[in-house]
């Protein structure tokens, strides 16, 4: 197999911060809208495994935002995703994750800093100056110099007034060789609500369009868009190997897509399409049956716990899913999708909701994260997605727990080597809490599609 090497010039910038809740998503959204208003073709990306922030990006630029995650994808695939989806764009904006240097365990592996190095990407740091004057310089210098080649070239000041901007700009640019690219004022009407997995999803905010419009208008007035664009042009050329993706044949796969099930990596879906799948969206909340003539089923994560009454009352959908899956319909379900396929769910008031019942077990909400973070998954038996001992990287991110986690895979934490059993998997099913990015191991996607094709051929 001959590797196809690609080299391209991609104007790009990363928006990073000292920690979570610093305003990265708000400022990234503001920049995306402002650049779009200026007539620029903009692509958006998110560092790490987050599902929700890319939904906000997509609402602004009207095309999918994509995840760049070194642990799950590896360096080459991160560069491939960026290059593949930014070739026709004027600028690509990458939103960092957590604090700039925060990674796996006690080091920087998997951090925004490491991703910026791999992508040769200049970085603008979001800084909240509240309650400081010259001390803000110590924070900026600390972030810039904490590691060699930090790539931090400038800052955007958050939550300050127009009257204080010149004061802070002078302090910073007098004391440091760092450019200030503007500021964002405090905008109370534009604050984004949070819940247990982070921000609420974009489709749940009824006035999101007006919020985005207001943020974009502010950015046009207060942020140096010309300076940021010029900085993006200084990024070195991007080089990567094209992954070897082979079309397996044609099939239709039903993909759950509504308020309860909305956590998907766009590049995982693209990979299935490149391999021959036609993805047909349906809603377990609202539709009465599956789409016709499908060879497979993909139920992603989301917030099913918020919609259990409606999900449990959609009896015709529950009945058809149980019949089709038990008859051999290849089924891949992650986190919320897995919860939906268990026998029941119990809420905080001990009310029980009957669900599909493909596997025995009940899920229930807890008050803290369960098995939070990155994992390596190794198969304990042959199954829908792989052979025994094959592996793929993934992550878990959920407040619920279950009485039946499964034992078809062994999950291992990369930083501590802690292990546990997970995933219910056999020849036609793969159901469990872990989230996968299919580009992490392309064979998982290929095996799924081949099984979907086989199912349709045998059911004719």
Fold blueprint:
Layout: E1 4-8, E2 12-17, H1 24-37, E3 42-47, H2 52-61, E4 66-68, H3 70-86, E5 91-95, H4 112-118, E6 123-128, H5 135-145, E7 152-158, H6 162-175, E8 179-184, E9 194-195, E10 198-199, H7 208-222, H8 225-232, E11 238-242, E12 251-256, E13 261-263, H9 266-274, E14 277-282, E15 296-299, E16 301-302, H10 308-313, H11 315-326, E17 331-334, H12 336-341, E18 342-346, E19 352-354, E20 359-365, E21 373-379, E22 391-396, E23 400-402, E24 409-412, E25 419-422, E26 424-425, E27 429-432, E28 435-436, H13 442-459
Parallel strand pairs: 2-5, 2-6, 3-4, 3-5, 6-7, 7-8, 12-14, 12-15, 15-17, 17-27, 18-20
Antiparallel strand pairs: 1-11, 9-10, 13-16, 18-19, 20-23, 21-22, 21-24, 22-28, 24-25, 26-27
Helix pairs in contact: 1-2, 1-7
Search tags:
alpha/beta, 460 residues, 32% helix, 13 helices, 7-stranded parallel β-sheet, 2 domains, 6-stranded mixed β-sheet, Rossmann fold
3D structure, described in words:
By secondary structure, this protein is α/β, with parallel strands linked by helices. It folds into 2 domains: 237 residues, Rossmann fold, CATH 3.40.50; 209 residues, Class I glutamine amidotransferase (GATase) domain (Rossmann fold, 3-Layer(aba) Sandwich), CATH 3.40.50. 32% of the residues lie in helices and 27% in strands. It contains 13 helices and 28 strands. The strands form 7 sheets. It has a 7-stranded parallel beta sheet, with helices on both faces. It has a 6-stranded mixed beta sheet with strand order 14-12-15-17-27-26. Helix 1 packs across helix 7. The longest helix has 18 residues. The radius of gyration is 23 Å and the shape is globular. It starts with a strand and ends with a helix.
